[in-house]
Amino acid sequence: MPILFDMKTITTALGIGYLLTLLLIAAYWRDKQKMDTIKILFLTSKATQTTGWFLAVFRDNISDLLSISIANSLMLFGLALEVIALLRIHDTPNPQLVKLYLFITAICIASFQYVYLFHNEEHYRIVCVSMTMGILLLPTCRAAVQQGASILMRIIGSIYMVVMVAFLYRGMSAWHATNWTSLYHPSSYQLISIMTIYLALVLSSTGFVLLLKDQASHELIRLASYDSLTNTFNRRAFTDYADKAILLAVKQGTPVSYLLFDIDKFKQINDTHGHHAGDQVLQDLVHQIKSYLCEADLFVRYGGDEFGILLPGHNEVQSDNLASAIMQKISQSTPLGAVPLTYTISLGVITVIPNPKTRIEHLYTSCDKALYHAKRNGRNRMSRSQLHVEQKAELLV
Length: 397
Description:
The protein is an alpha+beta fold. It has helices spanning about 5-30, 35-55, 65-90, 95-120, 120-135, 140-145, 150-175, 190-225, 235-250, 265-275, 275-290, 315-330, 360-375, 390-395, and strands at about 255-265, 300-305, 305-310, 345-350, 380-385.
């Protein structure tokens, strides 16, 4: 025998559910994290939907304008804000697409108002609000199938897709049946609808918080691994990745090359033009060099103006050609913006066929000597490390 509820119980329970979700998430974010656009969007969406549900609770005590027209409009608008917040977690949507989506939302709300004013029968309202909610949930398909999305994002996107299909099915069914699709008429569908809405509320809200925590974790990892000024690896992260790349080269029997370089007379640039100009030089240097690198190459800023690049699979000829191209590009670059200066680099390079005992610090030590040799011989030049017998034993044995 199906469990049946009166509508007042249903809407009150759902309204309380939305309110508790809103309060708990707001309290958590207030204590743990700063408020940004995504969190504000999500909280606003839940506040809007909560208001809509509580207006529906008093349907028999207040005017239909409030309990039907405004209540459903608030739910539609709140759902749209929730979808925008979800999509902003993974990637910032194109502003033009957001404007288009908000325009579609306005059309959906206007369509419901038209039905309310000129065809104010329950099954027509169900058709309209269900179909428009399904339409508003369509962008969540992107979260479920987008390339590069995390497993958690795909799961949350899939939950929204299930809810979308349920709304579309309800809307199409209500076109032919007037009673069983209504939450106001006791039926088995009523219980299924309540459970679906509650599950969607709990899973979407919980999933949203988990997505933000996942995003924050990835951001912390990125901050711990990259130099904030140049967006290259810092020394610790580079050492980890470089040693792994060297071990892979050992298994494949391929060479690796390593470049170590710094900017000639960088202290003089800072003293003459200021540290802001020095930062511009560092950023310009990285920008120009990255155009020569492939995905497997590892780029590090050790500190100050000292940088290194590990080139897996590059032999002596390839690494010499790359180093020469980089130096030529840097020396021929135009002055930076309003700062009337150009700059050059000096570079040390080494190529080895690594052995299991080869480590990046060994390559750094040898390259540092080559870089010193290039500086001593006039700067703006490259010097290749010439390994002595004992150094070869350290690197290759």
